Amino acid sequence: MKLTFIDWTIMVIYFVFVLGIGFALKRYMKTSTDFFLSGRSIPAWITYKTAYPEMFPSDSVAYRAYPNNVEDLFRTGMVYENSVGFQGGDSKSSVAATLSNVSHTGYVEGSSYKRSNLGLGAQTKLDMGLTVRGNFSYSKSKQTGGYFGENQVDGAASLFARSMFLFILSDITRRQEALPR
To answer: What is the average per-residue pLDDT within 55-75?
Structure first.
């Protein structure tokens, strides 16, 4: 498909228009809070509902508590960490090796993290007085599920959305606590 003169003209007009809006509104947006919350002129939930509709189900669906909803969602997470190291040498030379393994089952079903490490090192002092050292490290890791167990189901909010929401919420709380009473 080849773009015609009309296609390029429409794209240029569109980009100029969007950049113009950006430059016109730049003076009102000094912080990320101004950008996300429109300078606090509208409630935060409206911005979030627009940007992340999967976080807010339809207004016509009433919340319904399910029995054991917490017990069925979470489990006890476990972390196993093992490491073994070897070191040896004489007055001129030495070698070292380290093997380690981490296995973490998350507190949400289907989340886990596994990591294996290998480290090798050696040094020797040459007859001319120069010391030569070398190190090698290798790590292999595999994560299933989201960070800290979230995003396990379709439609779950992203890590960005959750962390941004908590950041904005803590900012609002901090500002409210600073107000005189």
So the answer is: 67
